[in-house]
Structures are given as structure tokens and as C-alpha cells.
Amino acid sequence: MVAVLVSSGCQYFSPRHVLTNYNLPLTVFLRLDPSIGAAAVDYHDACGQTVALPIHDPLAAELKKRMEQVFERVVMQAGPSSEAIDGVVDVALGPRRVDMFVVRKANKSYPATVTLGLDVAYTDLQGTVLHSKKLQSATTGEVDARAETCDISGLDKVAKEVIATVVEGVAQQLGTATKIREQSQFRKTQRGAMVQGGVSGQVAPSSAALPNAPIVPAPVVAAGTEGSTSAPAVPTGKTQLSFRTILRDQNQNHVLEQSERFSVEFEVKNEGTTAADAVAVDLNGHPAIVASVKTPVFVGLLQPGEIRRVTVEGTVGKVSDAEQAELICALQAASNVALPSPKKFFIAIKPDASDATEVVSVDVDQLPGKKGKPLQPQAVAIAIGVGAFRDQAMPTMKLAAHDAEVMSGYFTSVMGIPPQKVKVVLDAKGLKDDWIEAFEQWLPKQVGAQTTAYIYVAGRAIVDHETGAVSLLPYDATASGSTRAYSLARLQRALAGASVKQAVVMLDLSLEPSSGFDPARVAAPRWISQESDGEQERVMLIVGNSTLQEAQAYQPGQHGLFTYFLLKGLRGAADLDKNGSVLTGELCAYVQRQVTAIGRSTSGNTQQPLCLPEAGGPSPLRQLRLSKLP
After folding, report:
1. DSSP β-bridge partners for residue 537
2. Which range has the top average pLDDT, 6-15, 121-130, 153-162, 253-262?
């Protein structure tokens, strides 16, 4: 995820951008602000300690390298030279931030976003600012934590990527600026005349003769226009803005379809003590989304503490194929205003509503806000994700803990279960004793006669090669045996002992046979325990992988394949009858269809989900309301 936003909100730089050598016939003095020399980004390591990651060396090196591809010659130290200096490029550090949450020391990967801004200005020797821009970039990558140390690895790579992207934005701004190109053309003509007349070049001025021009933040300008050399009148003093954005589509399935109407709602707040003038909101991104939108939309003058809401409406244009699109939402304001980082949405778009193809959308991790009273105040939930094991010989499941973390958020924000009735167990905190405590001690204390229990487990399981009994593997399970396993039958007994009214158990598991099996004689997984006399009338099973095989990961969605579509379905995609609610039966049908189709198309292997009770029967378990759409 990479975006570079200029002050006009009309330019987007991609890491796939082809580097251009502009080769302008100018000699420039590259003057780096002291903030560049001290550039660093702060983050919290796995122990919660603040750590500074220095970025000044790669940032300075990248600036010099790209400026040398924009201009004929770049001078870093002013002084006597055989060539004249035509202008000064000033670069200063803008906003920088690391968005990363590492829960604790564990062998686990986490997403991390590094945001970096630069202020750049080009000044000629008469002190006239020919071009000035504020640029910002955000790059998301993956970092790794280890159980034996507080250190986080991989963040430097993400930082280098964002440096390369924002510096490329600087190069494109300076290389294509009209006034700079006019100066370069004049300089080229002047040099030709000097050569014909036999006049030698001037001596470069000393540092005392260089224009002492600070970087001037560019005023808000229309797309395609140059920054003004004089600053507009703005309120005195600095202030800052914050904003929230909600994207709504007409049919509420979180997929934008051709000709469908949509709206983007902005809530803008002045967080400072000074009035913010010339505030506007701007949208940029995929042409099918923004072509019908008239932006920027002016908010006007915001007094300190004032909140104002505006809505931008549009209609999806022509869409040729199902794909993932980007929408970048940003603010504009006068130069005395500190602007927040732009918000970037990944949106699934497709040609029309009849197209059943599922397209990638990674917005499942963005939890909707909780509104009003809990939808299910009597419900209780447990989310378990164990993908790393104490026994190093055990194969890992990289996304299991993340799957359970996000699912626990859905229990509260989407399904409306009170937070105090949701228990989360992850990786090293998921010993067998922790499972016993969750199911057999904590759960009975939370339930009543009308309680619905929701259980979610992501990880590994073994299938007894003789009986087919399924056993889940906690963190302290071993590769050599199943003595530390927690059987599915025991889980079902715990639900019966807790006296819940009904339960929905969702399992995203990789299945393998128990040790000592004969490949020619392996029993199929048995999901209903022989001991659960009549319990199938109270317990619904939604199983992501019903056969002996590895559960597929869905890398575009950064979740397990089954879990990704569980989340998509819960937030509205599974509302098959479009009545505003997602029922258990609808979720089963949606997940079965999508997991089977996407698994076949992405890897060639079919992963077959299973729902018990099956469709077609009269069971009320398939009519439970899981979520209600806004």
C-alpha cells in the first residue's frame, strides 16, 4: 500500500513507477535541512519500549541519487567551482510515523505502515521560489518478532521502500515543474550563445551568495497548476485537523458495481487552538470511482474545536473486469494547518451485480464502529488462534493468531457481543491449560438460559486414523504425540456442561492424521462426537476444511482463506436475501461457495467447507441472526 499525496491532492506515485531521468541542463545546490540529518522514525518494540530507527543516511543518499538524475549537476557543498549554480533545492523533513502493533514477544509477523513526508522547494539565485510542494508517502510491509528478543526485524526495509517512493515524488515534481523547465530551457539557450561568442562560464557563488530561502509550503492549487510564489492570507498561528471517513455503497455488500451509487462521508475536526481556513476534502484513485465525483469539496473555515460533516456522492463508472481499486481520501487547507495523513481504501469493484466473482478486498481488518446497544447482549464468544508451537518441529500456521484477533473484533463490533464476554487466546498464551480454563471454567460463568455461545478456532488439528476423531492442537502440543491435544468431543462436552441455549463453532483448521497411520486406511474426520447425544440440535458447526489437508492461506486478503470469507460474509456480503441481516445459513452458503471457487482458481486445489446441520433441513440453528447491517 503506497500513496504519495501532493498538496493539490491530484498526484499519485506508485512503487511500480518507471524512474525517469529528466537531465535538465541546470546545476543546483542541494541543501538538506538539519531535520534530514537527524531523520528517524519511532516505534514500540515487542516489549513496549520506544525505539528510534535512523533513516537519515538512506534518505540523504536517495535524494542525492535522484537529484543527479533530474539535474545535470548536483552540488552538496557551496564553494568555488568552475561551473555556475543555477538554483537551490531545499529539502526538509515532514510528517513521519510508524503504525504497527506488536502484541508481545512471539514468533510472529505483523503488518507495519511507515509514513514519511518531505517539503521541497526550488529557488533561483534571485530568491524567487519557482516551485514548492509538500509530499507524503505511506508504505505497508511485514515485520517479524521473535519469542526470545524484544527486537523487531524488517522495518528498515519498509522504511527504504517509503523513502524511494516519496523521493521519486520529489524528482517528478521538480523534473516536470513548468517554471523550472523554462529556466532550464533559458539556461540551455544562454549556454549555446556563450559558446558561440566564446564567453567562459561564471564562477559559482560562495555559500554567502546563495539565496537564504526557507522552504515555502505550497498553497492549495487546482490540479495541474504551479504553486504561487506568494503565500495567501491565512489565520495566524499553527493548528491541525483530523478527519474520519466512511464509504457507503448503495446495496451495502461492500463491493462497488458498475452504475451503482455510492457516497463518501467526511467528518472534519479542528483539533487546534487557531482557526483553519480554506479546508477542503479531496478524492483520488481509480477512474471508475472518482470520474463522477466533483472534488475538492470545500468545507470552509473551521473554528477551534469545530466539527463539520460533508458528503461526496458519485456513481461507479464503466468497469471492464472484477478487480481491486484504490480510493485515497485527503484534506486540503491553508498553509498554517498541519494536515493528517490521507486515508486509503482498497475497494472491490466489478462490472455488475450479476457477476458472482469474488474480488479481493483487504478492508476486512477495518472494524466498523459500534453503535447503540449490543445486538446480542446475552451472547458469549471465545476466539483461539494458535499458529506457532513450543515444539519447533511442529509446522506453523502464520496467519492463525491474526485471524483470531480480527475475529474477536468482529464478535464485538459486527456481531454486537459485549466486550467483557469475549475471550481471546493466542499462540504462547494458548497452552492446553489455557484452553481448559477458557472452555471449562470461564465459559460456564458467562452463560445463562438464553445464551448463544460463539467459538472460533484457527490452527492445526489431528484426526485419529482409526476412529476419525478430531483433536485441536494447543501451543504445547508436540509433533511426536497427541497427549497435549484438546479433542473436539471435549469441547462439545464443555458446551453441554455450560448449559448454553445454542452454540456456533467455526473451525479454520489444517488437518493431518495421527501418528502411526496407514495411508491406505485413514478414517475420514468425524465432526459429531459419538458421545454428543442430541447435541447436534444445539451446536452448529461451520468447518473451513472438511478433509485431511492443509487449510489454505489467502495472501491477497492476509487471512486464512476460510476466515477471510467468514469476515467478509459477517459484514454484509453473506446477506443473500438483502434484508439487512446475515443468518447462519446464509453465512454457510456464502462461505462454501467462495472458498471452493477461490481455492480452485488461486491454487488449483479445492478446499471444501462443511456446515452441520446441512442446508435443506428445518433446523433453527441455520436461522440465527449473526449480524445486522447499518
Report:
1. none
2. 153-162
Domain ranges of the chain: 2-209, 239-355, 374-555
Q: Which amino acid is at 232?
A: P
Q: Is CATH 3.40.50 the right assignment for the domain spanning 2-209?
A: yes
- Rg of the chain over CA atoms, in angstroms? 29
Q: Is the separation of the CB atoms in 268 and 331 below 8 Å?
A: yes
Report DSSP state, residue 368.
P
The answer to whether the beta carbons of residues 164 and 211 sit under 8 Å apart is no
**What is the value of pTM for the model shown?**
0.49
Nearest Cα neighbor of 430 from 108, 10, 19, 88 is 108
Q: What sign results for the dihedral spanned by CA atoms 72, 76, 77, 78? A: positive
Cell digits of residue 253: 455488500
Instruction: Tell me the C-alpha distance between 239 and 327, whole Å.
Output: 26
The Cβ of residue 603 has, within 10 Å, a number of other Cβ atoms equal to: 13
Spatial separation of the C-alpha atoms in residues 136 and 166, rounded to whole Å: 6
Pairwise CA distance, residues 111 & 203, whole Å: 52
Torsion of CA 540, 582, 411, 143, to 10 degrees: 100
Instruction: Please list, in sequence order, all residues whose beta carbon lies within 8 angstroms of the beta carbon of residue 254, skipping any fewer than 6 positions away.
Output: 348, 361, 363, 568, 571, 572, 573
Helices and strands, counts by H and E, the chain = 11, 30
Q: Do 374-555 and 239-355 fall under one CATH topology? A: no
Given a contact cutoff of 8 angstroms between Cβ atoms, the answer to whether 447 and 549 are in contact is no
Contact 576, 584 (CB under 8 A): no
β-pair partners for 384: 425, 457
Cβ-contact 432, 474 below 8 angstroms? yes
Strands 502-513 and 452-463 come out as parallel
Q: For residue 436, give the 3-state DSSP assignment.
A: helix
* Dihedral sign of CA atoms 363, 253, 360, 407 in order: positive
d(CA 57, CA 36): 9
**Topology at the third CATH level for domain 374-555:** Rossmann fold (3.40.50)
d(CA 187, CA 26): 7
Calpha distance 630→625 (Å, rounded): 14
Output the DSSP codes for 163-220: HHHHHHHHHHHHHH-HHHHHHHHHHHHHHHHHHHHTPPPPPPP-GGGS------PPPP
pLDDT digits (tens, 9 = 90+) for 205-230: 444 456 654 444 433 333 333 333 33
Give the residue ranges of DSSP H helices in 441-487.
Answer: 443-446
**Residue 595 per-residue DSSP state:** H
Contacts of 590 (CB under 8 A, 6+ apart): 565, 569, 573, 574, 576
Determine contact, residues 280/296, Cβ cutoff 8 Å.
yes
* pLDDT tens figures, 49-108: 889 999 999 999 999 999 998 998 899 875 544 457 889 999 999 888 888 877 677 888
What CATH code is assigned to 239-355? 2.60.40.10
